[in-house]
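Newbie here. two chains, one complex. Structure please?
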Amino acid sequence: ELKVEQNPLFLSMQEGKNYTIYCNYSTTSDRLYWYRQDPGKSLESLFVLLSNGAVKQEGRLMASLDTKARLSTLHITAAVHDLSATYFCAVEMEYGNKLVFGAGTILRVKS
Amino acid sequence: KAGVTQTPRYLIKTRGQQVTLSCSPISGHRSVSWYQQTPGQGLQFLFEYFSETQRNKGNFPGRFSGRQFSNSRSEMNVSTLELGDSALYLCASSIGVGYTDTQYFGPGTRLTVL
């Protein structure tokens, strides 16, 4: 059974600081997704990582995938308050859009 | 391009009742997946439909069922509701084929079972 673990589960950081969220998964997969969820809202797609060594960047967020280590990271650079949200990683268990989600990381950026 | 829409957005039911939720995918998308989100269990996959056929199923009891119509719209039904069914139900649509396929989520239906 595929398990996806995120850490930390809660992250409080100051504006302007850098930090990394980690996503480990237990079985082989080469498709990993990062989503953002604001309180009371749905999931917004941030990144789709499709191969080993994939790196994608959007603004202050950068995601990478190491399929051999079964690890993805979401790096936050110079955090701003608007980045406060819950971030989920999800691994595709098998072809057919069956995603297994991590527990989510609640990010709070303090001014 | 319109996003994924779900109706109703909020629903209150009592134990033992049944409920039907609806999801309209993005135009051109043929795959619809359903997820349940609760504080205790997080986001869990329910099932996925592609071209009117169930292609994948999660570990939920048979009280949870779904279907997809020829226009790709999908419905999810929960019979004999239990208190533990209270959750945010999210549907996601995607093209359904191709290695770079991405799922786009709707706003969700908040179901409360009393």
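Moderator note: The first strand of chain A starts at residue 4 and ends at 7. Chain A is about 0% helix and 60% strand. Thread marked as resolved.
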